[in-house]
Amino acid sequence: MEFWKDENEPITMFLKMFEETSKIEDLSKGLKKVNQLIWFDYTQDGPNCSFWIDCRGGEIKAGQGKPDEEPALTMSLSADDAHRSWSNKLNPVMAITRKKIKVKGSATGLLKLAPKLKKVAEVYVGVLKDMDREDLIL
Amino acid sequence: MKGNTGKIIDVDLTAGKIKVDELPEEYYKKYIGGSGLAAKLFWERGNFDADPLSPEAMLIFMDGPFAGLKLSGTSRHSTAGRSPLTGGWGDSSCGGYLAPELRYAGYDGIVVTGRAEKPSMLLIEDDRIEILDAGEYWGRETAEVNSALKEKYGKAYRTLVIGPAGENLVKYSIILNEGHHATGRAGFGAVMGSKNLKAIVVKAGKKEMTLADPEKVDELRKELNPKIKEALASEVLHENGTAANLIGGMYAGDVPIRNWTSNFWEEASEDLTGSTLTETYLTKRGSCAFCSIACKRVVEVKEGPWAIPEGPGPEYETIVAFGTLMGSIDLAATCKAGRICNDLGIDTISAGGTIAWAIEAFERGDLTLEDTGGIELKWGDMDTVINKVVPMIAAKEGKLGALLAEGSVSAATKIGKDSIDYTVQCKGLEAPMHDPRGGGHGLALTYAVGARGACHVAEPMMFAELGSRYYPEIGFEYELEPMTDKEKPEAAVDMIAIGGLENSACFCQFADSEVTIPEWLDLFNFVPGYNWDIDEMMRAGRRVFYLKRLINYRFGRTADDDKLTKRMLEPARDGEPEGIEINFDGMRQRFYELMKIDPVKAIPVKEVLEEYGMGDEAAVVW
């Protein structure tokens, strides 16, 4: 991995990012509209390198690993590309076309979140700063 | 001949004569089929001096080589000829069910000239081809005529029908297949109307076609069909239709608002997006023949002023053209508008663009109450648009109907006052609902150099700028930034060739996004059996582009016509792209250099034409 020292580090960052995101009204509203259980699968970089978010029923929950239930959407990519993606430095359509991201399931909910990704990236940059990882800011 | 049948039906409606012509295989190898082969036929047989609505005008319907193959996305056909709307080359791709039926009946296309003495229709049942009286259908709407034809001949008969607008020679009239699938652009419904041809009905006895290598085609189809079906874009299109990503488009600045005077309207994104249509009015999903994507919408609006029974639903283009473009975010109104445009036989893109221009003109005082016959035009007043303006256009009724039925360029030319500056069109074809100032600057270039005018499907530049096109085998590995001109002319050179293949092979751009260059090559080598290499295939795509330019040149088009209007090149307003301007001249100049296009005549230089095996054509223009 280019950016991460172990498989747990990116998940810690990403879960913190979602925690902060859900505190911002506009983004929280956007996430709730996704209304899906999504698994972000980075297990190509280690068996524990994944997390899920559950935006169903007006609540936002998240956790490390694979969700117990079958996710409505699974996005599989490397932890490095996930870092680029959450930093808004990876064109998701291009990444899907070039097989850097594999998608399984319905992306309808995620399309509703897509316009907010720029703001999510701002939150992510804030998290990297708080976690003393400014060196990762792209 | 394999894949193709090599035969076309040649109909002279004036003489009432029908014959079947066999075309040389060289035509197919050089110009593929669809709009490319239609261009070749027009070049060889067309009357370049004829008014598009005169009996001498040629109307061409043409399949691609893969029609009937039972492969997702390949059941389209092209309609082509001189456009009555623009006066230049026109072609329009249509999905649905006509293309495979015509192929199975034994033909690759139909060429119609002349004018029938009375309302007529063409009936094709394999070898039996007849011109029949269509008096009972004349004056009736498309849905009604489609149902009547199905009732008379049977559900398995495939139909092409025009509405009252086509009969009245409205310049942007459509031809509707199965009452749902539109030959929308460039006004070929009016050409049918001018020939007194109300409908074409086709039924094949056997559903077979001859293939160069049936086993390999079968293997390829087994690979491609699931690949196309399971692609993320296909699933999104299936679930929420062509408006599935309207939200993303809105935030990018791609969705035109109030005649392209703004690039952002937050409320509209949620109210008009495809998932909202799914949740509110969708009753079923529909598809073209053999397509597993099924992006078509069937809707019902149960109550309110826009109530409509279950039937064809609006595509993205209709939703925006009769939504934000006119200052409205009423999704039910777009369903109603789409339905009446279909029934009357009008292109929703040109209608939307022309009406939006008229609303702005009225607001500015350039169009007066005297011009409109006392009708006030206001942003968002969909009652006036749907209940008055659209029916008046279809009937060419009153001053306003007659003015707007000719399209935005004609209307702006008539009222003057520099109102041409805020038309949104190229070569007279109103632009589709993608604003390059937010959607991608390369799209501005391909709008301008496209043969038929402002068009987002002549070349897949829009998809390339989104990031969904990747062809490493031809060196197309650009990581394009939509909001710059960087590498756009270079990318356009490849997209021109791909667009030539798509529109000549009549392959849907949603489906063929999943098809790689080697798979394209396999299709050509296993279906018609051309034994091409990649270079030969790409040259064929580019040759189609060159030929259409030569045709336009013979219609009097030059580099002065490869331009966009003042409104389209103003800096973007509001939202993500606010203030950004497009380096249009720079892109166009570089594109001409790369394509070896003469900067005045806007046609390829003689040496290029000879290199592409177009020496005979070169001799006509140089």
How would you describe the shape of chain B?
Answer: globular
Greatest interface by residues involved: A-B, 16 and 19 residues
* SS content category of chain A: alpha+beta
Q: What name does the CATH topology of the largest domain in chain B carry?
A: Aldehyde Ferredoxin Oxidoreductase Protein, subunit A, domain 2
Termini separation of chain B comes to: 34 Å
> Order of SSEs of chain A, N→C?
HHEEEEHHEHH
**Total discrete domains of chain A:** 1
CATH superfamily of chain A, by name, is: SCP2 sterol-binding domain
Termini Cα gap of chain A: 15 Å
- Helix segment count of chain A? 6
Topology:
The complex is a heterodimer of chains A (138) and B (622).
Chain A: H1 8-21, H2 25-34, E1 37-41, E2 50-54, E3 61-64, E4 73-76, H3 79-86, H4 92-97, E5 102-105, H5 108-113, H6 117-130
Parallel strand pairs in A: 1-4
Antiparallel strand pairs in A: 1-2, 2-3, 4-5
Helix pairs in contact in A: 1-6
Chain B: E1 7-12, E2 17-22, H1 25-31, H2 34-45, E3 59-63, E4 77-82, E5 89-94, H3 98-105, E6 109-113, E7 120-125, E8 128-133, H4 142-153, E9 158-161, H5 164-167, E10 175-177, E11 181-183, H6 188-194, E12 197-203, H7 214-230, H8 232-240, H9 246-252, H10 266-272, H11 274-280, E13 282-286, E14 296-301, E15 308-312, H12 316-321, H13 331-344, H14 348-364, H15 369-372, H16 382-395, H17 398-404, H18 408-415, E16 425-426, E17 429-430, H19 436-439, H20 441-449, H21 461-466, H22 488-505, H23 509-512, H24 517-526, H25 534-554, H26 566-569, H27 584-595, H28 606-611, H29 615-621
Parallel strand pairs in B: 1-6, 7-12
Antiparallel strand pairs in B: 1-2, 3-4, 3-6, 4-5, 7-8, 9-10, 9-12, 10-11, 13-14, 14-15, 16-17
Helix pairs in contact in B: 1-2, 2-22, 2-25, 7-24, 9-10, 13-16, 16-17, 20-22, 20-27, 22-25, 22-27
